[in-house]
Amino acid sequence: MSPLENKNRCLQMVAAWNRADVSGVTEHWAPDVTHYNLDGEPHDTELVLTAMRGSLVSFSDLRLEVRSILAEGDRVMLRLTATATHSGEFAGIPATGRKVTWHYLEELRFNEEGKVVEHWDIFDFAPLFRELGHPAPAL
């Protein structure tokens, strides 16, 4: 797959996320996709799916906006802004009804069939916790 095709797949995943269509995101994942976050440890797909579904409960009307997207070779980098209403429990914090915003980066590596085989999410949750009126937990 070309870098442009991989970039378009990423935009399709963002569009699916904005429809709260988890399967529209995961259809682009290879069965053996590995997920990572700031801890650098591999996470299995079930854990990531649980987190994705939980975020849709914790943050209604969740919307992602792509601020920039770069593709080279088999990798795509995205800089995203998320906005939502805190409508359900998140990290032990009861729903506040507050509108919140957070920023994050994603890096995705694609195989030759155009499926994601490696997925990195880099979030800084400290500003989100501040918006919710709580100190960020220690890393």
UniProtKB/TrEMBL annotation:
Transmembrane segments: none annotated. It comes from the Bacteria. It holds the Pfam family SnoaL. InterPro entries: Cyclase_SnoaL-like, NTF2-like_dom_sf. SUPFAM superfamilies: NTF2-like. GO terms for biological process: polyketide metabolic process. This is Ester cyclase. It comes from Micromonospora aurantiaca (nom. illeg.).
